[in-house]
Amino acid sequence: MEVAGERLTAATFEELAMPLFDQLYNFAQWLAQDRTEAEDLVQETYAKALKGFSSFQPGTNFRAWMYRILRNTFLTSRTGLKVSATVELDSDESPELSAGPETPETILIEHSQHQLLQAAVESLPVQFREVLLLCEVEEMSYQEIAETLSIPMGTVMSRLSRARKALRESLQRRLVKA
């Protein structure tokens, strides 16, 4: 098999797959809600993808193929089958701050909003969370999401609509509590 005139080799795989590493890791971390589990998922995804690279259909969407392998690996893992209610704070990542003078108060408010949104997204069921993240964070088209999740495009749109509604409702409830 060939990709744009090249044989499907380990070097071709590396050329196609390595630019996706950070995106896949971020998606895995959102799905698993655990850094160590996300690292394991990405490692297993790359191992499975390399092993099955000969089955990749040249001319199809490689990115969607990799995300589908990651998703399937997650769903068959012990993490994908259990419901986790924990919220891990990422100490490495600082929230994006708005333009203007940074004060302890503005930093606290921004951090609180980031935590609130993260907790609301993490509380969504996996099928809603994954479609929302693929659309809004990974900026995939509806068609790419449909290919990645192996579902019809109408289902993508329906799940995305329901995910956004559930996210809005969750944020409203959390804001009332705060």
Written account of the structure:
The protein is an all-alpha fold and 178 residues long. It folds into 2 domains: 10-86, RNA polymerase sigma factor, region 2, helix turn helix motif (Rna Polymerase Sigma Factor, Chain: A, Orthogonal Bundle), CATH 1.10.1740; 104-177, Winged helix-like DNA-binding domain superfamily/Winged helix DNA-binding domain (Arc Repressor Mutant, subunit A, Orthogonal Bundle). 67% of the residues lie in helices and 2% in strands. The chain has 9 helices and 2 strands, in the order E-E-H-H-H-H-H-H-H-H-H. The protein has helices at 10-17, 21-32, 35-51, 62-76, 78-81, 104-122, 126-136, 142-149, 153-177, and strands at 2-3, 6-7. It has a two-stranded antiparallel sheet with strand order 1-2. Strand 1 (2-3) and strand 2 form a beta hairpin. Helix 2 packs parallel to helix 4, helix 4 packs across helix 8 and helix 7 (126-136) packs across helix 9. The longest helix has 25 residues, at 153-177. The radius of gyration is 18 Å and the shape is globular. The N and C termini lie far apart (57 Å). The model is unreliable at 1-6 and 82-99 (pLDDT under 50).
